[in-house]
Amino acid sequence: MSLAVYVFVMAAVTYLIRMVPFTFFRKKIKSRFFRSFLYYIPYAVLSAMTIPAIFYTTHNIYTAIAGTAVAVVLAFLEMPLIVVALAASGSAFLMGLFI
């Protein structure tokens, strides 16, 4: 198949995913439960995509745990994102050197 067909199908699917909620939900959503549910969807999806990647990227569970622990502690201390990312990567790397 042509590359243009693949691009067209991806564009159509992306457009439909973004357009469908706007066509069905024309009024403001007043349900507190449904609004809170929709509020947390991006965080849940991001976590579902990120957490498995954390533990399968290094091919060693101990380096993954070390990096995750450092990231969680620094994020809890409200450090900047670049500090959290660099420290987590560095701690996973150092753990990998010692194992």
From TrEMBL:
Alphabetically ordered keywords of this record: Membrane, Transmembrane, Transmembrane helix
Pfam families, per database record: AzlD
InterPro entries xref list: Brnchd-chn_aa_trnsp_AzlD (IPR008407)
Regions crossing the membrane: 6-25, 37-55, 61-94
Protein name: Branched-chain amino acid transport protein
Organism of derivation: Ruminococcus flavefaciens
